[in-house]
């Protein structure tokens, strides 16, 4: 499943409907807007929550320094 936790709408522009997969099995499918705004399956919700946490963490971390 492609995620768009930043809310930019990229997934909605390239995939509709969307499916959430767990271990290669579809756990939820539906209109992309529904999955992005109100996922029903616990695993789909967990995917978005994890993606949002990673995005927040990368936005608050200072940029890495190069070796130059």
Descriptive labels:
16% strand, alpha+beta, 68 residues, two-stranded antiparallel sheet, elongated, single chain, 44% helix
Furnish the topology, listing elements before pairings.
Blueprint: H1 10-14, E1 18-22, E2 25-30, H2 32-37, H3 42-60
Antiparallel strand pairs: 1-2
Can you list the strand order of the major beta sheet? 1-2
Main β-sheet: number of strands, strand sense, barrel status? 2 strands, antiparallel
* Share of residues in helices: 40-55%
Please state the CA-atom Rg, rounded to the nearest Å. 14 Å
- Secondary-structure class: alpha+beta
H/E series: HEEHH
Oligomer: single chain
Tell me the β content.
15-25%
Sequence stretches where pLDDT stays below 50 over 5 or more residues: none
**Total domain units:** 1
Structure described in brief:
The chain is an alpha+beta fold and 68 residues long.
Describe the structure.
The protein is of the alpha+beta class and 68 residues long. The protein has one domain. The chain has 3 helices and 2 strands, in the order αββαα. It has helices at 10-14, 32-37, 42-60, and strands spanning 18-22, 25-30. Strands 1-2 form a two-stranded antiparallel sheet. A hairpin with a 2-residue loop joins strand 1 and strand 2 (25-30). The protein starts with 9 loop residues before the first helix and ends in an 8-residue tail after the last helix. 12% of the residues are buried. The mean pLDDT is 76.
